[in-house]
Amino acid sequence: DVVAQFIEHISTKIKGVSVDYFVLMPTHIRLILILEQCEFKLGEVVRRLKAATSKQSGIKLWQPNYYEHVIRNERVLGKIREYIINNPLAERIEFTQFYK
């Protein structure tokens, strides 16, 4: 899948960006990105991800906006990771694309 491949290799495509966790769902993606010494702000990273994956797939994959949440401590990070892991189960979806 184009999106999963891009995300799994995002650190080679956008310097200073790495992936902590993600799950690819049929209608959306849950993703924790880590930006360390990245020359771009989060909005530009998301724009590049959307543009590259849409171009490679040849179809419009994304809605114009995205939801962002700044993770400020380990406790919150743990809760969000757990949410990402359980999201497919909560929606009763069998998933194959999961990364940690």
From TrEMBL:
GO terms for biological process: DNA transposition. Coiled coil: none annotated. This is Transposase IS200-like domain-containing protein. PANTHER family: REP-ASSOCIATED TYROSINE TRANSPOSASE. InterPro entries: RAYT_transposase, Transposase_17, Transposase_17_sf. GO terms for molecular function: sequence-specific DNA binding; transposase activity. It comes from marine sediment metagenome. Residues 3-87 form the Transposase IS200-like domain. Transmembrane segments: none annotated.
